[in-house]
């Protein structure tokens, strides 16, 4: 199995096909504490201090560029399409994202430096406790206050209170969104829709000392979902991302460090490995609400139905997925330490897919049937993310 970012062996795999998140050692949630240490900010700014598995070179300013969907294994396989990023990856071990390996959870882990079980953004869709409604964490809902859903002080706010300048550079449409407020409040927000705008904003923000500037690009993930990571479209987009990263590096002063990371990887799901819960009757029995996403389904069960639901889903999926009651998934450490307020947001049963299996719902989530690439589970292709420093 791949080494941890500190060169040691990370926590053991759940089985030969799953990889545990390296919380506190070398995970996406450890990036901001690592940057804080490199900026020379107080060592007690975060409870865990400077992560031993993610030591970064000291510098007065850091620009963190997150490329949505750029899994470490994808970059390795397609190095020819991204010569700049691939060169940076040589000799550097990957980190992991958290569980589920999905954008909303990962971006909140980055922005708060907390494990999913603490920050509470537990997946793409999750039940609002006490209701029969799902919260879509990307679209959010005006009925859910993001500061109540995620009340913890963000890592960005901690850096700001310690004297650092913290800036988020992202699309204008995301300013003030529920996810932005939950994950990244406490930072100055600069709306920038085009590559040139983003690079210029990063150069301006990084002139502050000490400073952390965060940039986000979601185009690679969008392309992977719609065309797949084996497509020519995805390769072309990867090449454009590589050029953007190199242009960003060239525009930044030499004393500003560029750190390129990702929120998850991705796998393509063939037609013969797609399971539709609306076609297999047994998969709906005892399930009151279907949440999560296709690679990591979260099942909210009718009272007393958990054991029957686990048995039914295991019977249908066999070795194509790990089907666990919520308590068992928590005990395995998938979500880190889970707070009592966050626990009921997770499904009573969680279904983590192996290989390239996906579990769809043509009724509840019809758009899923038109996707090619997916993420959310614990396979190395989804969990391993690059940590590239220049």
TrEMBL record:
Pfam families: Phosphodiest (PF01663). It comes from Nocardioides kribbensis. This is Nucleotide pyrophosphatase/phosphodiesterase family protein.
